[in-house]
């Protein structure tokens, strides 16, 4: 069972990602056991099957580098990071050109 401190740290990281990565529109965070532990932005709107598909695709592409980017038809450019603490963070960014 996760403690409040760990949950607060995950939420804090998601909040910082919105500030640090331009055009971030949503995030998903998975723990080391592949359980979804945090969502933000468009990540909150995703259906369970879509989240599972994204996680599977991300794990296939991560490899040894710990970073993977792909285009998702529904939510645009998707970045996946395997963190040093074993958690995986998925970041959706708006890939639309500004007019």
From TrEMBL:
Q: Cellular component terms, GO, for this chain's entry?
A: cytosol
InterPro entries in alphabetical order: YNR034W-A/EGO2, YNR034W-A/EGO2_sf
> Highest taxon of the source?
Eukaryota
Q: Which Pfam families match?
A: YNR034W-A-like
Q: What is this protein called?
A: Uncharacterized protein
Which organism was this protein described from? Kazachstania africana (strain ATCC 22294 / BCRC 22015 / CBS 2517 / CECT 1963 / NBRC 1671 / NRRL Y-8276) (Yeast)
* UniProt gene name: KAFR0C04650
């Amino acid at each position: 069972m996760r403690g409040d401190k760990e949950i607060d740290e995950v939420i804090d990281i998601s909040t910082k990602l919105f500030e640090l990565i331009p055009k971030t529109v949503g995030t998903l965070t998975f723990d080391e056991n592949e359980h979804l532990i945090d969502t933000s932005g468009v990540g909150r709107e995703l259906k369970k099957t879509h989240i599972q598909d994204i996680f599977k695709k991300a794990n296939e592409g991560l490899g040894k580098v710990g970073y993977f980017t792909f285009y998702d038809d529904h939510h645009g450019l998707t970045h996946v990071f395997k963190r040093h603490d074993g958690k995986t963070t998925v970041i959706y960014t708006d890939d639309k050109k500004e007019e």
